[in-house]
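#lab-general

N.A. 3:47 PM
ok so I finally got the sequence cleaned up, no stray characters, all 177 residues accounted for. can someone with queue access submit it? mine expired

B.Y. 3:52 PM
send it over

N.A. 3:53 PM
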Amino acid sequence: MKSEKIQALFSGERVVAKADFFAKALYDKSRFGELYKKEDIQYSFVEALFLLEQDKMEVLDGKYKPISFDKFLKKLKKFESNLWIRYCVFKDMRERGYIVKTALKFGADFRVYDRGIKPGEDHAKWILYAIHEGASLTWHEFSAKNRVAHSTKKNLLIGIVDEENDVTYYEVKWVRP
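B.Y. 4:20 PM
back already:
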């Protein structure tokens, strides 16, 4: 029996699927995507890439032809130069059992919910920045990231991706002596 997949359309800046049984079930269980225009679910680029790699989604181009993982990744990199680093962190966190959502309004890469918590049930525990191990971060940039986390009542989590695409996390907390 063929396993069912979400059929999503990639239209330049969006990856959208009809909120059919499979897409809705995955949303309800693991919060992949965001409800969009009542009968659709919109996916972030990293979510769509992850679901494509996990064989839970088929991404279609404008001519409704399937796009391979490598071709889709190449197309997405045109929109986000840091996409692969963000994807490595997203994938690692998802495989560890966390729900990971975008955090654009916070000026960060992701919001991360503690295991067992879904968006809407409680707030995210961490605000996460994905960084390549070769990148530099000034104290001013570090302080700005820490202030964003503190002002949103979240802990700062920095995911550092090495040359083998392994991720090491550093959590930063405010401490009152």
